[in-house]
Design goal:
nine-stranded antiparallel sheet, 26% helix, 467 residues, single chain, four-stranded antiparallel sheet, alpha+beta, T-fold
Length: 467
């Protein structure tokens, strides 16, 4: 466990005690758990129950673990085998969603991934056609719990298995002495009971595309903006359409809210690879599901009911674009810097985080100014947001984050003077802070900032927001 912290939150109109726990390298990603409970001991019981269920299911479903039940069964050929109910449930889910999405969700997508990973040149039409043919085969036959493996195309149980694990972990936790639970596994999450967390949906430029107050249900996001294939100096999305073995081009990200995590994960996966029009038809066909798509040109595409659940930044108005470049350090191997970008008021109180690129909580204090201000904010507001905004470090290069003029609670701040802060710290490297005050009063400004060892350059552009 990387951290444990007592939090106070407003749940259901009254004060409740919420305990948060964080773990790394859980199914290859980060795990955050929050529980509404009467005591820390009760929350720890729920934590242990959730972790035990995740560990149990990893041994069943992980296709990266050669000793798992799934891996062992996938090695069989044409042999009717009685499998566990958990494995049978995931196989049924893939059968259902493969058919429902016309092949856009397919566990055999690994055949397409093998073409693109490490390729020296773009796979040609013949290579893609061969991969499509392999993915189009019948992968298995399922009769109740009797599963017969067909073919030899590699299978990767990803989003649907992850959703299944989330559902079972939440179910296990709620069987403990708690009133509510939030379980976030690598950005996909489930909410149960009395929890009412406020979730920020990130945009492709690391800004906020929407803010959602979650109740009972699940959320999943699939996007192309943090990973990809670099071939011949050109970037391709890592999201591959199993029907074409080609990278997705029409959608930057898809966020889905649904009643359960399997449905949310399946839809998010499909909507991220099909074209926007097809995605809308598919999303609208699933009862109770709502979605936010960010098209390749940045245009948001919302389901009919999304607006009632989420606050989406309105078109027009003013926005601040913070452009900065993470410097490249020549010479021996080194670790990427940790970076925080935020807005603070005249009292140096942090109003809104724009970027917090430190995925492991034990390194958060290295960003001294951000961490000090965030602790002050946490004490004043009795809420914790660091875990919800923390994300992976970034490679050297240019980045842009945006501020829509709102605080962390989604409320517009008053016109006035605020500071833009860009902080960077690197293990065995240097610590740097850029802080610039400027007036936010509706008058456009363009301000270049002096760079440093870790942040090579920075530029502030206060402008009318794009419609």
């Amino acid at each position: 466990m990387t951290r444990r912290q007592l939090l106070l939150a407003s749940l259901g109109g009254h004060r409740e005690t919420v305990f948060a726990f964080g773990h790394e390298n859980v199914l290859g990603t980060s795990l955050d758990l929050q529980f509404a409970a009467d005591s820390e001991a009760d929350a720890e019981v729920a934590e242990a129950m959730a972790l035990a269920e995740i560990d149990r299911l990893r041994a069943v479903l992980s296709t990266w673990d050669p000793a798992s039940e799934a891996s062992r069964w996938l090695k069989s050929r044409n042999e009717a085998t009685v499998v566990s109910e958990d494995l049978a449930a995931v196989l049924r889910a893939y059968d259902t969603w493969r058919e429902r999405t016309s092949g856009a969700v397919d566990p055999a997508v690994g055949a397409a991934m093998a073409l693109w990973e490490g390729a020296a040149q773009e796979p040609d039409a013949a290579q893609r056609a061969a991969a499509v043919a392999a993915m189009g085969q019948r992968h298995w036959e399922l009769d109740g719990r009797v599963a017969t493996r067909r073919g030899s195309t590699p299978q990767v149980f990803a989003s649907l298995a992850k959703g299944y694990v989330l559902e079972r972990a939440a179910e296990a936790a709620m069987a403990g002495p708690v009133r509510g639970a939030l379980i976030n596994l690598g950005g996909d999450l489930v909410v149960r009971g009395e929890m009412r967390p406020r979730i920020s949906v990130r945009s492709a430029d690391e800004g906020t595309a929407a803010q959602v107050t979650m109740a009972e249900g699940a959320m999943a996001t699939s996007g192309d903006y943090r990973r990809g294939y670099e071939i011949g100096g050109r970037r391709y999305s890592h999201l591959l359409d199993p029907r074409t073995a080609a990278p997705a081009t029409g959608v930057r990200s898809a966020t889905v809210m649904a009643g359960d995590a399997v449905t949310a994960g399946a839809l998010a996966t499909a909507l991220a690879v099909v074209d926007p029009a097809e995605g809308q038809r598919l999303g609208d066909s699933v009862a109770g599901a709502e979605y936010l798509l960010l098209a390749a040109n940045g245009r948001p595409i919302l389901s009919r009911g999304w607006g009632a659940l989420a606050q989406t930044p309105p078109a027009g108005g003013m926005e601040l674009a913070v452009e900065f470049e993470i410097a490249r350090v020549e010479g021996q191997r080194y670790r990427r810097p940790y970076v925080a970008v935020w807005i603070e008021d005249k009292d140096k109180f942090p109003l809104h985080p724009l970027a917090f690129w430190v995925e492991k909580s034990r390194w958060w204090p290295d960003l001294k100014s951000w961490y000090r201000g965030d602790r002050m904010r946490a004490m004043a507001e009795a809420t914790e947001i660091a875990a919800t905004v923390a994300s992976a470090t970034r490679a050297p290069g240019k980045y842009t984050v945006k501020w829509d003029g709102k605080d962390s609670h989604g409320k517009m701040v008053k016109p006035g003077r605020y500071a833009v802060c860009i902080e960077a710290a690197r293990e065995h490297g240097t610590y740097q802070l850029i802080r610039h005050e400027m007036e936010f009063n509706g008058t456009a400004q363009s301000v270049p900032l002096k760079g440093n060892v870790e942040i090579a350059s920075a530029h502030l552009e206060y402008r009318k927001a794009a419609r």
